[in-house]
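Researcher: I'm comparing several assemblies side by side, and this is the next one on my list. It has 840 residues spread over two chains. Same procedure as the others: predict the full complex and return the structure.
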Amino acid sequence: MTIDLTRLRVDRRRLRNHFEALARIGATPEGGVHRPALGEADIKGRKWLCERIQQSHLAYMVDPAGNQSALLPGSDENGPRIILGSHLDTVPGGGRFDGALGVLAAFEVLLTLQDAGYTPPIGLEAINFTDEEGTHIGTLGSRALTGRLNAKDLQRPFQGQSNFDNGLARIGLSRHNILQARRPKDTIAGYLELHIEQGPILAQEGTDIGIVTAIVGIGRRTLLFRGQADHAGTTPMSLRQDAGRAAGIFTGKAWDTLQNNFPDCVINVGSMRFHPGTFNVVPHTVALDLEYRAPTKRQLEALQEALIGLAQATARECRVALETGAAETSPAATMNTRMLDILAHAADRLGLQHRRMPSGAGHDAQSFADLCPTGMIFIPSMGGKSHGPDEQSRWNDCINGVNLLLQAALIMVKAFQDTG
Amino acid sequence: MTIDLTRLRVDRRRLRNHFEALARIGATPEGGVHRPALGEADIKGRKWLCERIQQSHLAYMVDPAGNQSALLPGSDENGPRIILGSHLDTVPGGGRFDGALGVLAAFEVLLTLQDAGYTPPIGLEAINFTDEEGTHIGTLGSRALTGRLNAKDLQRPFQGQSNFDNGLARIGLSRHNILQARRPKDTIAGYLELHIEQGPILAQEGTDIGIVTAIVGIGRRTLLFRGQADHAGTTPMSLRQDAGRAAGIFTGKAWDTLQNNFPDCVINVGSMRFHPGTFNVVPHTVALDLEYRAPTKRQLEALQEALIGLAQATARECRVALETGAAETSPAATMNTRMLDILAHAADRLGLQHRRMPSGAGHDAQSFADLCPTGMIFIPSMGGKSHGPDEQSRWNDCINGVNLLLQAALIMVKAFQDTG
């Protein structure tokens, strides 16, 4: 019997049951989820997923970075695999959808294909990546698997070495083995990830699906404007070297620069710290935390240059000195154009309205973008809310996204078959 | 024998000896003075002054607010007095000149007249006012003496009730008696104060003397800009309600407003506090500490109105809310125009270059301005520095100021005699 795979749809009820069971693990009184990587709730969540996979008769695996996989083997067991994945960990006091929906969607796709009695020509693997949110080390699992992590990255976990080591030990792992999770490039045929948008655009437009064109690169710097402390009553305005004035003008003009010259980018002045910070002393130093994001490497560089240039010009205008600080940069990841077409084709097949858009947030998909054909699906976030208990997506939107993941995966399988 | 009083000059060496002896009391390793009101060094300084006055055969008095006086009695012992004064207390880690020079100058004027064998027709009193700097309660002594202090002011000393009470007890005083220091209006014929400028204008211009036209009024508010926290990567710039942007634009434009419309006023944005204050979250709230100073009540009100209007317009432009907070205001004090003429006349007599200027800082003189003819003399501060060990004035400038205080006091005496 031949199955018409284009008509295959996921099991809504099973997916919902899984989603709600998982959302109870680390649930907060406010309706969100607190499941930071390698903490108590995350370990419970990992145990829950392990049991679900084992009950399903899909193969279960864990690698040295703690990445958990369900595998639907292909007819060529030694061939490469298509990976579908996301993460079960959350930010502290996070929401129910971010990451979790993508992992359960990947698992559901495999279960649906298994239920259909389908043996694909190429293996399909659903993965829960360790610590995407950066409780210890951001996108730890996906970077370890794709070889984008190095020994230096492991030396500065955000909560210190011993917290990290203890967390790893709780799931039977060691920092010293993590880099062994790296897989050879030719074992990975492609990567797909479903995620909530975490922004307001799809919900505001009423569009069903966002097809991610790029995951933005992120730069961070602390700008130090250094002027001179003076008596705020006796020093004429014209003689002041006011670091706060420079920081203020920079912030206003940086917004203008973005809106005029970088429509695809965003910036944020997340904090300013004034010194000495009292009513009656002109601030001699202001530390300004600047973040900037752009969808391509070239744009990120141009944006950084424009912002530094603006800060320098503003400092000169206000007669204060500027220290631009060291930049911490996460590179931009461009999605494969053929994958954009596959996703659009699959969305059309399902009758879903879709649009292309960059992702302003980082995702596990960025670890794969340079390695293999990589695609990413967004579904609408109500009110654009994320990383909190008010993170919410409509259930119909979730189902649309999961069916799109299924159909896009099947088109990738077919493409592999046709070329292989 | 008739003395030509217009040729009388103070004793430079005695004044310098007094200045240096006093500067050793509370001296800091950095070359400044740490003598906060009612602390150990201040009490030593008070004891030193008491002994110097008592050795001089001038009358010594202390009132219930701790104000210390030296009196050169007039021929009418029951008549009003001309008061010359300032304060011996300093800010923590302050300088040698602020306040101390004015007290020693007043004392030196009386000593010089006493040495000359001169009995004025009206009494002359040199006063060290308690706690001008506000270690416990700002301009405590001068406000108590002039009746500008009330019971409510005494209830909130900056370092708490028990510290204040203990400090008073160390000099034999009680909070409950302070208001009894108030003197009847008709006992005060005029007030003169010599002080360092604490700003850079006189030194930069090379002008010998500043004749103070007004002591600025001071307003303080904490403006709260309230927007919305959002993901700094996924929220388009156009949809953000960024409290930091509003605070930044306000700061830049407030400067422009000052320079264009309020040339005699100053403002200071002393601090901004961003919430939540991280790189990747759009700040939902910024608390901005705003101070504004103007030489007249009307200008202070107009300035406040302009600043609040600007903050409101900026908040609207950035689509954030604004809370303007409660204003804490210290009123402006205008100097007597006849006193300005007397001071100019005396400066001309001494061949000193002078200019009129407002005082951006508060002084004991402001307590007297509504009560009696009040005048204030500034001498140059090198580099405009004050309230620190680098506070410095040239000794010649100090002597010029003290001789001006002497000559101006003599003109006031003569004016009293002519009209009385």
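Model: For your comparison table: The CA atoms of residues 77 and 255 of chain B lie 53 Å apart.
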